[in-house]
């Protein structure tokens, strides 16, 4: 009952005209960002952070959430019509969605993606409403050692899962942790890694690193590959309405995708990529139309799109209740909380109840707005795909530069922005993941803070981390996560040697 009353209060906040306006702005921007290939919600929120400092936190986060949900919706458009995912979670949709477009069924593919996104988003938001207070109760039982173990586990999982190279993933993570140490030591006041530069004494702004590694590097990388990539846009034809057979084949996939996406979105698994892959695999295994997969199976669009949108709601739950980002976009939302001087966690539900429940209620509203935007106005979003890429890339770089400069009106920040942009470009070229670096910068100071508090509790002994059952379990799980790929590699190598010896 308390949750229901809190949600009603949230709707009172979210339905205020100003907040409704920012929700509409968020979902519109998010849909556009999702449609345009290669930008994604994390880049969009990173670009918006500098210009939202003048807003109150509640409308700002309602807009950010609208961008997050909108990008999940819009990503399917480029995947289906252009075979180029607008954001990473839509990559599985491209497999059968674009095949449907080649067969003249692009409209039906877009319809099942939009309706599935609405169904999954609504059910997952209900799950967020019910699960978030339970996570708060759990978080209140955790102390500094447990939070240290939780952050270590999250960083280990994300670094291990993302990218093809474990070593490059940890180089990215430690780079972020190192950048997070720049500035004055919060306990002793001593300068660290400032190299005599006064501008570095306050540390490196998360927004600068995020815009550089996400936005600038993405544009540089996309521009460097543009001449080698040909695009063929399939036009919409026919009615958007799905046939009875389309509905019959889609609705179970929507529900299964939601059941996969929401819980996996709450885990530190890097975002929506894993849920969409698992959903596609499950749909292919369960479908009686296996021969159609890869050639235009509607289940191959319905399931991954539902999992994609459900994972967004799943990622918001641990962010609000634990202050733990489980995806790149959630990391940007955490940077937004830091920008406003707000710390997510169990106390947030008491100190900023209007913000939390207004944000959750706005997700229900955003889902309805997105359905209205995506079905009748899909032709308008398709026109965005015809924008000349040089104009798009140049505009984003200009907007990123303006946003970085207006943070402190300091040209030093611009130099850092392009330095991090070049660094991110190199990381993308060598296939090193950039998300661990962002999370290292954001979570590094929290990791250091909880470690110092733990050592104070243990009177200087690090054994306090292993004497507490929960923290010990979390740290051991992190070690297992890191070592398991190495163990699998060694086991596979030995198996190959045995097989080659037996063949000889």
UniProtKB/TrEMBL annotation:
<feature type="transmembrane region" description="Helical">
    <location>
        <begin position="110"/>
        <end position="135"/>
    </location>
</feature>
<feature type="transmembrane region" description="Helical">
    <location>
        <begin position="200"/>
        <end position="223"/>
    </location>
</feature>
<dbReference type="InterPro" id="IPR002823">
    <property type="entry name" value="DUF112_TM"/>
</dbReference>
<protein>
    <submittedName>
        <fullName>Tripartite tricarboxylate transporter permease</fullName>
    </submittedName>
</protein>
<feature type="transmembrane region" description="Helical">
    <location>
        <begin position="20"/>
        <end position="49"/>
    </location>
</feature>
<feature type="transmembrane region" description="Helical">
    <location>
        <begin position="355"/>
        <end position="375"/>
    </location>
</feature>
<keyword id="KW-1133">Transmembrane helix</keyword>
<keyword id="KW-0472">Membrane</keyword>
<feature type="transmembrane region" description="Helical">
    <location>
        <begin position="147"/>
        <end position="179"/>
    </location>
</feature>
<dbReference type="Pfam" id="PF01970">
    <property type="entry name" value="TctA"/>
</dbReference>
<feature type="transmembrane region" description="Helical">
    <location>
        <begin position="414"/>
        <end position="443"/>
    </location>
</feature>
<keyword id="KW-0812">Transmembrane</keyword>
<feature type="domain" description="DUF112">
    <location>
        <begin position="20"/>
        <end position="439"/>
    </location>
</feature>
<feature type="transmembrane region" description="Helical">
    <location>
        <begin position="387"/>
        <end position="407"/>
    </location>
</feature>
<feature type="transmembrane region" description="Helical">
    <location>
        <begin position="463"/>
        <end position="488"/>
    </location>
</feature>
<feature type="transmembrane region" description="Helical">
    <location>
        <begin position="315"/>
        <end position="335"/>
    </location>
</feature>
């Amino acid at each position: 009952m308390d949750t229901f009353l809190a949600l009603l209060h949230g709707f009172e906040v979210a339905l205020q005209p100003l907040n409704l306006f920012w929700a509409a702005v968020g979902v519109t921007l998010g849909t556009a960002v999702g449609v345009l290939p290669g930008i994604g919600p994390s880049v969009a929120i990173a670009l918006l952070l500098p210009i939202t400092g003048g807003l109150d936190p509640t409308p700002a986060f309602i807009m950010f959430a609208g961008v997050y949900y909108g990008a999940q919706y819009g990503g399917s458009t480029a995947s289906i019509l252009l075979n180029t995912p607008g954001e990473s979670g839509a990559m599985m949709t491209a497999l059968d969605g674009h095949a449907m477009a080649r067969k003249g069924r692009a409209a039906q593919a877009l319809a099942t993606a939009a309706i599935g996104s609405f169904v999954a988003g609504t059910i997952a938001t209900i799950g967020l409403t019910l699960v978030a207070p339970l996570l708060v109760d759990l978080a209140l039982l955790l102390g500094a050692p447990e939070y240290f173990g939780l952050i270590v586990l999250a960083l280990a999982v994300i670094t291990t899962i993302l990218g093809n190279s474990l070593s490059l993933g940890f180089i990215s993570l430690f780079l972020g942790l190192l950048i997070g140490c720049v500035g004055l030591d919060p306990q002793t006041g001593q300068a660290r890694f400032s190299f005599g530069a006064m501008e570095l004494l306050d540390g490196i702004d998360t927004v600068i690193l995020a815009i550089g590694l996400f936005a600038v590097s993405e544009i540089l990388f996309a521009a460097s590959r543009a001449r080698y990539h040909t695009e063929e846009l399939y036009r919409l034809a026919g009615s958007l309405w799905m046939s009875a057979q389309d509905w019959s084949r889609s609705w179970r996939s929507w529900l299964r995708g939601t059941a996969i996406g929401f819980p996996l979105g709450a885990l530190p698994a890097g975002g929506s990529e894993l849920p969409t892959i698992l959903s596609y695999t499950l749909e292919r295994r369960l479908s009686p139309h296996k021969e159609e997969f890869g050639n235009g199976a509607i289940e191959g669009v319905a399931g991954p799109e539902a999992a994609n949108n459900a994972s967004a709601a799943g990622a918001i739950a641990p962010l609000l209740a634990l202050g733990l980002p489980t995806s790149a976009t959630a990391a940007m939302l955490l940077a937004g909380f830091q920008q406003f001087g707000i710390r997510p966690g169990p106390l947030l539900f008491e100190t900023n109840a209007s913000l939390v429940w207004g944000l959750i209620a706005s997700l229900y509203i955003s889902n309805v707005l997105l359905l209205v935007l995506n079905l009748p106005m899909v032709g308008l979003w398709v026109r965005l795909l015809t924008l000349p890429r040089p104009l798009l890339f140049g505009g984003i770089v200009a907007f990123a530069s303006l946003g970085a400069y207006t943070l402190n009106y300091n040209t030093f920040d611009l130099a850092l922005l392009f330095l991090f942009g070049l660094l991110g470009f190199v990381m993308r070229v060598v296939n090193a993941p950039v998300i661990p670096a962002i999370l290292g910068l954001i979570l590094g100071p929290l990791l250091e803070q909880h470690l110092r508090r733990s050592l104070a509790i243990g009177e200087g002994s690090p054994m306090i981390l292993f004497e507490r059952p929960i923290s010990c379990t979390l740290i051991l799980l992190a070690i297992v996560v890191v070592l398991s790929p190495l163990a699998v590699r060694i086991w596979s190598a030995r198996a190959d040697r045995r097989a080659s010896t037996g063949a000889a």
